[in-house]
Design goal:
Strand order of the largest sheet: 3-4-6-7-8-9-10-11
Number of helices: 10
Structural class: alpha/beta
Oligomer: single chain
Number of strands: 16
Strand content: 15-25%
Helix content: 25-40%
Length: 409
């Protein structure tokens, strides 16, 4: 597919920094916010084409450890930014939604707003979709100084709440990866408090998660565990995403500090294997096994590794292999509302059918078009006089379907 060049129309409305951007063909594309001023001046109602349209579906829940995936791939806003899809089918697709609880769309832009395709398909499966606030390096330190040293904190937090409410996603990962002057730490606490409370009011069930980076003294020093240097941030929001260099002893200590909130501690697993237990890749399951043993939750970072590093022609086989290895350590969620309707499509194909008739011939890719993915583990559910076998049958390109066989005695 030819490279698309985005054209900004923001100059037509100086009060708003975020109106629908169009590519060179006039197609809408999702985009982030890159500056503090853009966030502070943002107003709703001018980017409707990039607003998610699928409500969050109800699903079965439990208090067992959770799994969050943090999608960081190739800088973000790749083919997934095309709101109406594109013709490049060589892409990363995620469809093991029943194994995860939350999806974070991550990039190194200041404010990462999830493209609506990801929010739509996450919601279709009952999974939270979250954006990212990140500051880093010298530029990030300057942004934090401007934000935390003035009277902008409450307005900034309210703007993040309004952005999530407008685009209909479900929370924020807050990732401050630069040092902060100690006298400004109270401002961080204020930001987290307002943001968390406001998100809960605006989007019930939403979450704000703090990344393990800055300490209570303002020093950028990853702790790789929950302790007294990052626990105050944890206490002000819905969870903490621990850095990747953890140890088994550190996990046990984190569990002790978290107490009843132990499943709100999301232990980082970098699939690229950068300093992570087990080395990442197809051995990421080794880390999840240890995390589960500690009764903590997991945050799987950059699962797009499967697409980025492995043979793209065999992506679906590799993706199935990767998630089948993780499956024993992931929660199993089922839909909790009827009707259940699916044609098992994964959001891509070589033809488009309507009512069984071919309406378009050619490659297409659109995350919003992904159907409900009923992928289950092979197991037996035994009740008093009934045995139900749930067969795991891969549904790639509509070739196969999941089958449930039940017999009553």
């Amino acid at each position: 597919m030819a490279e698309h060049v985005a054209i900004s129309l923001s100059a037509t409305h100086p009060r708003s920094s975020q109106i629908t951007r169009l590519d060179e063909y006039g197609s809408p594309v999702a985009s982030p916010l890159d500056t503090l001023q853009q966030v502070l001046s943002w107003t709703p109602g001018r980017d409707e084409l990039c607003v998610a349209s699928v409500p969050l579906r109800s699903r079965s829940h439990s208090e067992v450890p959770k799994v969050l995936i943090c999608h960081d791939m190739m800088g973000g806003y790749t083919n997934d930014k095309y709101v109406q899809g594109c013709s490049d089918v060589e892409d990363y697709y995620f469809y093991n939604w029943q194994q995860v609880d939350a999806f974070v769309y991550f990039s190194h832009h200041f404010i990462t707003i999830p493209p609506p395709g990801w929010t739509n398909t996450a919601h279709r499966h009952g999974v939270l979709s979250m954006g990212t606030l990140i500051t880093e390096w010298k530029e990030g330190a300057e942004t934090c100084h401007q934000l935390l040293n003035g009277d902008h904190i409450a307005h900034f937090a309210q703007q993040l709440i309004a952005i999530a409410e407008y685009y209909k996603f479900d929370g924020w990962l807050v990732n401050i990866e630069n040092g902060i002057h100690p006298r400004l730490i109270d401002g961080v606490h204020m930001l987290l408090s307002i943001l968390t409370t406001g998100m809960h009011e605006a989007r019930p069930g939403s979450k704000v998660i703090w990344y393990d980076s800055v300490t209570t003294s303002g020093e950028l020093k990853w702790q790789n565990e929950l302790n007294q240097l990052n626990n105050p941030f944890f206490e002000m929001c819905d969870g903490i995403f621990l850095n990747y260099g953890w140890s088994e002893a550190g996990l046990l200590s984190s569990r002790s500090v978290a107490g009843e909130r132990c499943t709100d501690v999301y232990v980082g697993v970098d699939v690229f294997g950068r300093g992570v237990f087990g080395g990442g890749g197809f051995n990421s399951s080794a880390a999840l096994e240890v995390i589960l043993r500690a009764n903590l939750s997991a945050a799987i970072f950059a699962p797009g590794w499967v697409f980025e590093t492995q043979e793209k022609a065999h992506f679906f086989q590799n993706q199935d292999s990767f998630w089948s290895l993780l499956e024993p350590y992931c929660p199993k969620h089922g839909v909790a509302a009827l009707p259940i309707v699916s044609s098992f499509g994964r959001g891509c194909g070589e033809k488009v059918y309507i009512d069984g008739k071919v309406e378009f011939v050619g490659p297409w890719n659109n995350h919003s078009a992904q159907d409900l993915q009923p992928t289950f583990t092979t197991n037996m559910i035994r009740n008093d006089f009934q045995v139900t076998a749930i067969l795991h049958v891969r549904t790639c390109m509509l070739d196969e379907v999941s089958v449930i066989v039940s017999k009553t005695f």
